Amino acid sequence: MKKKSSFTLLEIIISIVIIGIGLSTIIVVFMGGRFMLKQAENKSRATSVAAQKLEEYLTKSFAGLGGLAQTTRTYSNVDAGSGTGEVPVDWRVDITTKWETNASLGIRIPYKLIEVTASYNEEDPSGAIQRKNVKLTNIVPYPYMHTQTLKIEPSPSSAPMVASGSYRPITGLSINFDYPVNKDVMVIYNIAIHIDDDSGITPVDTIFTGCFLDGRTTSEGTETRTPISMQPFISNVLALNGVSANSKHTIQIKWRKDTPRGSIRLKEANLIIVSTERQ
Predict the structure, then answer these.
(1) Which residues, at least 6 apart from 258, have a Cβ–Cβ distance to it below 8 Å?
(2) What is the pLDDT of residues 73-84, one digit of tens each?
């Protein structure tokens, strides 16, 4: 005779308790997973906002971020979210002028420190609201190279005339600069002349041009020597090494001729300086 198997009430109760514990564990894990997923989503969005703003300000130049005249600057705004359920992200950009200093080498170079902070509110498992922040930083360096250009085209009535004797400035053909770091400066100038009167000018009569720094009485680098009657165009390239930082400098082009004969005036001229950071 076979015995019929059956569950006792106690076994049924134990089974229900075990199933309840299992379901509770699954629910807790599921809710914890949703919370962690929401945390990751909020942080990802804040990081995306911070990265976008950082990229935007990194595309600006050192001068575009205020240059040396602007030591600190702050921008901020509120992003109210673009879809249902998105957590609003506030962003703030702090831009500060810093200096990289090496006393042994005598180097002091400025740069812009960009700090972007994206902030948002997040609810923890207990229901409390916490303020979370994502911060990204980067720098915009001081330009390694600077270029300045100048072109003058005076009218015949006001054009500078070259005189004999000592060097005299070519009116309008000068550039001022002031850099916070030591620079090597390449100077390029081109001058076109017009001979109004060539009476008595010989093939050996010459125009001299030179580059003068900060009002010095002697020219920098090589001066040009151009026969008046043979070449109506003057060109020169020279280097000024180790021009000191944090001082106002003036580069001026001067000229003279070695004969009192003739009448020669400036037709057109340009001056270019290319300054690179001295290592």
Answers:
(1) 164, 205, 206, 208
(2) 998 886 555 444
Cα–Cα nearest to 256, from 264, 244, 268? 264
> What is the DSSP code string of 23-83?
HHHHHHHHHHHHHHHHHHHHHHHHHHHHHHHHHHHHTS-TGGGTTTT-SEEEEEEEE--SS
Dist. CA 168–CA 162, nearest whole Å: 8
**SS3 call for 245:** coil
Q: How far apart are CA 207 and CA 233, in angstroms?
A: 11
CA Rg value for the chain: 37
132-165 pLDDT, tens digit each = 999 999 999 999 999 999 999 999 999 999 999 9
- CA 259 to chain centroid: 49
Separation between Cα atoms, residue 90 and residue 46, nearest integer Å: 8
The answer for residues whose C-beta is within 8 angstroms of residue 250's C-beta and 6 or more apart is 174, 175, 176, 213, 214, 215
Q: How many CB atoms lie within 10 A of CB 213?
A: 17
Residue in the block written with tokens 């250009």: 149
Written as one string, the DSSP assignment of 162-206 is --BSS-EEEEEEEEEE--SS-EEEEEEEEEEEEEEE-TT--TT-E
CB 167 within 8 A of CB 212: yes
Percent of the chain with pLDDT over 70: 84
8 A C-beta contact, residue 57 and residue 125: no
Q: How confident is the model at residue 171 (pLDDT cuts 50, 70, 90)?
A: very high
CA distance 121 to 124: 10
pLDDT band at 4; cut points 50, 70, 90: low
